[in-house]
Amino acid sequence: MYLSIIIPTFNEALSIAKIILHLQKNLKGQDYEIIISDGASTDGTIAIAKELGVKTLISEVKGRAGQMNFGVQNAVGDVYFFVHADSLPNPYFFELIKNAIAKNYDCGSFRTQFDSNRFLLKINAFFTRFNYLFFRGGDQGIFITKTLWNQIGSFNEEMFIMEDYDFIQRLWERGNFKLIPKSTLISARKYEQNSYLTVQLANLKIVKMYKKGASQNAMVSKYKELLSYRKNAF
């Protein structure tokens, strides 16, 4: 297995070195590449990534979906692993993905663990052990074989929110999905700027809007209205 790890970024200078070093530390002796697919950052994200020796790209399409697609277009692996810049995959992620594929799973993701000891976030993370679409997210890390990618198509570049939900839904329909019983460490910064209840209600609202066919602009506007969130989120 040759693993192409694709990280979409936009102004992630504060976190990009941490994830790259984490990946490199846990990938020694493996066949892999790390691709930073950037949305024209202005804070030094690209320079940091280049200094650490990974492949850096300026995506032709800005937005997480477009940037991940652009990463795939420049990838050489036979398995793609999409990771967010503010998360840290389980140290054994390579072997876990490799073992899943050896058992005829062609796609999947991980559970969640937050980088916080808040009790409510531990409860939130607990439910990610159940393989329901509502508990899945792009920040957990999504892997897919090149073969399945060519069958189901890419991320929807018209989507600026819920693109991971849409993609995983298609994985379930066409692929053999594996929920690996190990966790990705995910940033709790959204919960540090908003109350737990506020975030949960906002997420529920956006999912309902999505299912009712709301426009991307409407969902993004509503999310920004409901939450105080980092400027580089969209």
Keywords, please?
Spore Coat Polysaccharide Biosynthesis Protein SpsA, Chain A, 20% strand, 8-stranded mixed sheet, single chain, alpha/beta
SSE topology sketch:
Layout: E1 3-9, H1 16-25, E2 32-38, H2 45-51, E3 55-58, H3 64-73, E4 79-82, E5 87-88, H4 93-102, E6 107-114, H5 119-126, E7 142-145, H6 146-152, H7 163-174, E8 177-186, H8 189-193, H9 196-211, H10 216-226
Parallel strand pairs: 1-2, 1-4, 2-3, 6-8
Antiparallel strand pairs: 4-7, 5-8, 6-7
Helix pairs in contact: 9-10
Q: What does this entry look like structurally?
A:
It is a single chain. The protein is of the alpha/beta class. The protein has one domain (3-189): Spore Coat Polysaccharide Biosynthesis Protein SpsA, Chain A (Alpha-Beta Complex), CATH 3.90.550.10. 41% of the residues lie in helices and 20% in strands. It has ten helices and eight strands. It has an eight-stranded mixed beta sheet with strand order 3-2-1-4-7-6-8-5, with helices on both faces. The longest helix is centred in the last third of the chain and has 16 residues, at 196-211. The chain starts with a strand and ends in an 8-residue tail after the last helix. The mean pLDDT is 93.
Summed up, what is this model?
Helices cover 41% and strands 20% of the residues. By secondary structure, the chain is an alpha/beta fold.
Taken from the alpha-carbon principal axes, the silhouette is globular
In the CATH hierarchy, the architecture is Alpha-Beta Complex
Q: State the fourth-level CATH superfamily.
A: Spore Coat Polysaccharide Biosynthesis Protein SpsA, Chain A
Task: State the total count of DSSP E strands.
Answer: 8
Total of DSSP H or I helical runs spanning 4+ residues: 10
Per CATH, the class reads Alpha Beta
Largest sheet: 8 strands, mixed
Approximately how much helix is present in the residues?
40-55%
Give the rounded overall mean pLDDT. 93
State the order of secondary-structure elements, H for helix, E for strand. Answer: EHEHEHEEHEHEHHEHHH
How far is the N terminus from the C terminus?
Answer: 33 Å
Lateral arrangement of strands in the main beta sheet: 3-2-1-4-7-6-8-5
Which residues sit in consecutive blocks of at least 5 with pLDDT less than 50? none
Beta-strand level of the residues, as a percent range?
A: 15-25%
Roughly how many Å is the radius of gyration?
17 Å
Alpha-beta classification: alpha/beta
